[in-house]
């Protein structure tokens, strides 16, 4: 006789129930990310940067551009964390492939941070030049 699985697979839901389930999954993802220091730093930097642009009266287009890049950065941070979790689960011992996967995820976040910082700097410069 087999024992019941420890973590049974949840039933698929459709219709409006799917919307509520997806919202719950996203909320759980956010709560998981909240434990990542990098995520909290990126969220704080985005809030401060966007707040500064609003206070300085930057054009709406610049505020939206920085907001979109900040959201993309947070999304890539989530993917990077997901990669790290899967790699650690599948390959608990050190491996070069695992290191490469983690390094590339980290690079993706860094590239978006640079892009966001560049657009933020241009937004500041254009606001002061106006």
Automatic annotation (TrEMBL):
GO terms for biological process: phosphatidic acid biosynthetic process. Its EC number is 2.7.1.107. GO terms for molecular function: ATP binding; ATP-dependent diacylglycerol kinase activity; metal ion binding. It is found in: Cell inner membrane. The chain crosses the membrane at residues 43-76, 107-129. InterPro entries: DAGK, DAGK_prok, DAGK_sf. This is Diacylglycerol kinase. It comes from Lentibacter algarum.
């Amino acid at each position: 006789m087999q024992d019941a699985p420890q973590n049974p697979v949840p039933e698929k839901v459709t219709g409006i129930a799917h919307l509520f389930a997806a919202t719950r999954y996203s909320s759980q993802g956010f709560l998981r990310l909240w434990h990542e220091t990098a995520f909290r730093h990126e969220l704080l930097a985005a809030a401060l940067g966007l707040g500064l642009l609003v206070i300085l009266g930057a054009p709406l287009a610049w505020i939206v551009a920085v907001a979109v890049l900040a959201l993309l950065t947070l999304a890539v941070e989530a993917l990077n964390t997901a990669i790290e979790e899967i790699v650690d689960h599948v390959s608990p011992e050190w491996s070069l492939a695992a290191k490469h996967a983690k390094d590339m995820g980290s690079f993706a976040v860094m590239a978006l941070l640079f892009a966001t910082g560049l657009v933020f700097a241009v937004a500041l410069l254009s606001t002061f030049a106006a």
